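Title: Prediction job returns without error message
Component: structure pipeline
Severity: low
Priority: P3
Assignee: unassigned

Description:
Job completed but the reporter wants confirmation the result is attached to the right record. Sequence as submitted:
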Amino acid sequence: QVQLVESGGGLAQAGGSLRLSCAVSGSTFSSYRMGWYRQAPGKERAFVASIIWSGGVTGYADSVKGRFTISRDNAKNTVYLQMNSLEAEDTAIYYCYAEGLVTRRQYWGQGAQVTVSS
């Protein structure tokens, strides 16, 4: 059973930094895309960043390019989202996800609240 457990959310001031972690278990993730979506109050869930577990190819939403960095640690089976130069508009619940590259089956974490005060 695939499980994703997020940690590291919280409160930061505008211009500050936070790092989210997503510990994954229950499968071999070499054929998965991992990443993050976020959902702000009153808005739909939106793509933030992704990484292909094998090879490390990354992708970012335009709104976070140059500020956020996604990475993974193979030994710890963990995906990270380093968020720098935070803005009030980054306030949202951040969801970690895993998607099989072949099966397209998706798995989601429980969500982590990120609040940025201006």
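Comment from assignee: result matches the submitted record. The radius of gyration is 14 Å.
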